Amino acid sequence: MSDNSHILHPTKTGNSVKDNPADNTLLVTGRKKRILLASLFSNFFVLLALYCGVISVLLPNHIAQIDPANKANNLAIVMTSALLFTIFAQPIAGALSDRCRSTWGRRSPWIVGGALIGGLAIFGISMTTTVAGIAVFWLMAAISLNCMNGPLATVVADRFLPENRGIASGFVGAGSTAGGTVGIIIAGYLAWNLQLGYLVFGLAIVTCCIAFVLINREPSTRTLEVEPFRWGTFFKSFWVSPRHYPDFGWAFFGRFAMFLGYQGVVTYQLYILQDYIGLSVKDANYAIGTISLITLVTLLFSGLVSGYLSDKFQRRKIFVFASSILMAAGLVIPLLVPTLNGMYYYAAILGLGYGAYTSIDMALMTQVLPGGGKQAGKDMGILTIATVLPQSFSPVLSAWMLSTFNNDYSTLFIAAIIFVFASSFFVLPIKSVK
């Protein structure tokens, strides 16, 4: 069997794509395509349910129980302590998965291994009663889950032709955003029993990833040739010059700005409901579930519809641009209406924008990879830094802003609006994608 990286840059004739089915052994069609789409939806659903449920609800509640007076600063410490170790986890795992030769293919060993270790580490968090202990177990979980997430995301580039990646990205985006919403809802109702909450999310990610690789079996790569490993070449490959690959650079910085703004509000959403809206701890945990449910409905609709329309018209940029503007508009609402109803309106508008953004952004990313995607695992991993870095950095920025502006949570919305609005303009200079 030959290397399948060439499937990422087929020859184009007009609006059609010519490919040799005999060579493209990873491509899926018909029933296998439908199963893979459903599997991607399920896996990203569970993964983001874990991330959002743990980050937005379980960790904030856990940390607040340990030290209520310093909860915001301690949450920032826990979230950022993993930064230096996890920022490069996905690109390194992606690069190693490109070179992986096994009976189960290139991506599957990383998907299963990362899920197993990550799931155990998530449950380990429940066993500790110190902020330091939480930070250590979260570091282990973050590294492992990032090593799983990178190869999993690369499946879109591996198995779908460019003209079909809008719908594939739509399923991934819908699964991610729906999972994040449901994860917050479930975590909100399990906040009374943190150990059970951590256990539910840890078991779910392990079960889902094992099922994924069994149902969507990769061909063996044991007989494929692999270039000799050289440390210098390996580490040099992680630098992608914005001058030589400007579209890749614009896509990276656009995603970075959007997630920096988005995560700054979402990470502190529980505290926003308590200290900005004025709810009790109990009411805030229930309200965060209602907010997430509203977001779920709007994002599922916008995510799947946007993915379908993007493929139909073969346009990516206009959808990413418009969705970013819509998200910025949603973030304005709590500033004008700082009430629980205002948060509900914010959730509905933000869901429409975020669902559309995530459904199209991945499709756009797969089409700006250097060299047509010959090192898709590594390059997709580099692009995920634009997601991971803001997730780690935004709590620090948010904690600094709250400290500087006398715990005024409105400053978080203002900063988020600026970053999300700015992100919409980074997509405009991209030339290789319409």
TrEMBL record:
Keywords: Cell membrane, Membrane, Transmembrane, Transmembrane helix. GO terms for molecular function: transmembrane transporter activity. The chain crosses the membrane at residues 35-59, 75-96, 108-125, 131-155, 167-190, 196-215, 252-272, 284-306, 318-337, 343-360, 381-403, 409-428. The keyword Transmembrane applies. Residues 1-20 are annotated as: Disordered. SUPFAM superfamilies: MFS general substrate transporter. InterPro entries: MFS (IPR011701), MFS_dom (IPR020846), MFS_trans_sf (IPR036259). Residues 35-434 form the Major facilitator superfamily (MFS) profile domain. This is MFS transporter. It comes from Silvania hatchlandensis.
